[in-house]
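Chain A, query sequence.
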Amino acid sequence: MNSAGRILAIDYGSRRMGLAVSDALGITAQGLDTLERKNKRSDFARLERTIREYQVTEIVLGNPLRMSGEEGVQSRKVAEFAEELRKRFQLPVHLWDERLTSAEANRLLRENEVSLKKRTEAVDRMAAVLILQSFMQSRNVL
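Chain A, predicted structure.
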């Protein structure tokens, strides 16, 4: 395993969180099971297990900015969650512009003729994968 560690991406939502993790080399992103939110304690316990299991060294959190690029109610909630993650896990947490990732995830799933029921289950995971891929691509380009 490379010393850089893996990156965990989170597509934050009030009912579900899509999760994806990079491979050890930081090249590919794989979706993990969606976290169905219950309460803060169980949500953080699941994230802690994921961080330990995959030896995560940093987190990227989708930041749902408005189309204008301004913060809205949801992006403020995400910023607060990012701060909680930093305090709890002592890891760098990056906010990443996620505008259109859920729409893109839906489009990809529709094109692949995934049924509506399965699409609902997969969209959060796919959005997390897209967030992680764009974050990793930006690092490789710079």
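Helices lie at 40-53, 73-89, 101-111, 116-141. The longest helix spans residues 116-141.
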